[in-house]
Design brief:
The protein is mainly α. The chain is built from four helices and no strands.
C-alpha cells in the first residue's frame, strides 16, 4: 500500500511541477516533497520500472518543449518564458534520472 501511495504522490507532484504557473517558492516545496516521496520507495524492481517509465516520459516532454521553444524568436517574451520552462523541466528531469540511478544501485546491490 505504501508503494502505491508513494507512486500516486510522485505522479501528482510531477503533474504540479509540469505546470508553468507555479510560483518559485511553491515549486521548491513541491520538489522537496517529490524527493522525500522518492526516498520512501524500497529496493524493488517494480519501483525501478515505475521510475524509469516516468523518467522516459519526462525526457519526451522535455524534448518536445525544447522543440517548441525553438519556434520562438530569441529576445521575445515568449522565448524567455519558454526558456524558464525548459530550465524547470531540466531540473525535474535531473531529479527523475537521479531517482532511477539510486534505485538501480539499490536493486543491483540486492542482486535482483
Amino acid at each position: 500500500m505504501q508503494g502505491y501511495v508513494a507512486r500516486a504522490n510522485i505522479d501528482h507532484y510531477i503533474g504540479l511541477l509540469n505546470g508553468n504557473d507555479l510560483p518559485p517558492h511553491n515549486r521548491d516545496t513541491i520538489l522537496k516533497l517529490l524527493i522525500a516521496e522518492e526516498d520512501t520507495l524500497s529496493r524493488d524492481l517494480e519501483h525501478l520500472e515505475f521510475a524509469e517509465s516516468r523518467a522516459a516520459s519526462g525526457r519526451q516532454r522535455l524534448n518536445h518543449l525544447m522543440r517548441l521553444r525553438s519556434a520562438f524568436a530569441p529576445g521575445t517574451t515568449e522565448r524567455a518564458q519558454a526558456d524558464r520552462l525548459v530550465v524547470n523541466f531540466e531540473k525535474l528531469q535531473a531529479l527523475l534520472d537521479e531517482l532511477c540511478h539510486r534505485l538501480r544501485d539499490k536493486v543491483n546491490a540486492r542482486g535482483v
